[in-house]
Write a structure and sequence with these properties.
Chain lengths: 133, 70
């Protein structure tokens, strides 16, 4: 399969996913949307294996590594700032129930942020062992 | 790091696309190496050198930061 065909197929699948998502919302069928998402990702993954041309090499991997690390750092800081702000807003004794719920949501965000850090540290140990430490 | 990839490619009358296919990398990677924007891994550097039947030192010229003229 040519690279252009693969990209066209990926684009078509993404469009189809949007249509199916809209339809699933209309008929209130979350399973349809979830199943189509999993199937779509599987089709893209399999199609990628049949591409004749090189679409990923060491340079693209390096770009992805740096992009992923920067995205992670930005997400960590953004989540931390938002969660701390929400927790403090929601912790007020005279805060109305809606604002208190905001505090609970902020606490959930903070836990997500901490979970990300924990996963990062665990994976770091795993890769350090793989690369001889 | 400087390199003679463009010269070697011209000497062998190869296109970037052709060389990229033979080396199993993307054309953009060849372009980036030629422009000096990307330093290849040691493995790719060896593959490039062997492809042109040269040594790494003949293909890539390492300049330590203190050797680079201002």
């Amino acid at each position: 399969m040519k690279k252009a065909v693969f990209y066209f197929l990926t684009f078509a699948i993404i469009l189809l996913e949007f249509v199916l998502f809209g339809w699933a919302v209309m008929i209130r069928a979350p399973l349809l949307s979830v199943a189509s998402l999993v199937l779509g990702i599987a089709v893209i993954y399999i199609a990628r294996m049949y591409v004749d041309e090189v679409i990923e090499d060491e340079r693209t991997q390096k770009i992805q590594e740096r992009t992923a690390m920067t995205t992670l750092q930005v997400t960590w800081v953004a989540l931390l700032v938002f969660s701390v702000w929400m927790i403090i807003e929601g912790a007020g004794i005279r805060a109305p129930p809606e604002i208190r719920r905001l505090g609970i949501f902020g606490f959930g965000l903070l836990l997500t942020d901490i979970a990300m850090v924990v996963v990062f540290v665990l994976l770091s140990f795993y890769y350090r062992k793989q690369y001889g430490e | 790091m400087k390199n003679r990839l463009k010269v070697l490619r011209a000497m062998h009358d190869l296109t970037q696309e052709h060389l990229a296919n033979d080396l199993g990398v993307t054309r953009q990677t060849i372009l980036a190496i030629e422009k000096g924007k990307y330093d290849p891994s040691l493995e790719l550097a060896f593959r490039i050198s062997r492809y042109f039947h040269t040594t790494i030192e003949e293909t890539f010229i390492y300049e330590a930061p203190d050797e680079i003229p201002p």
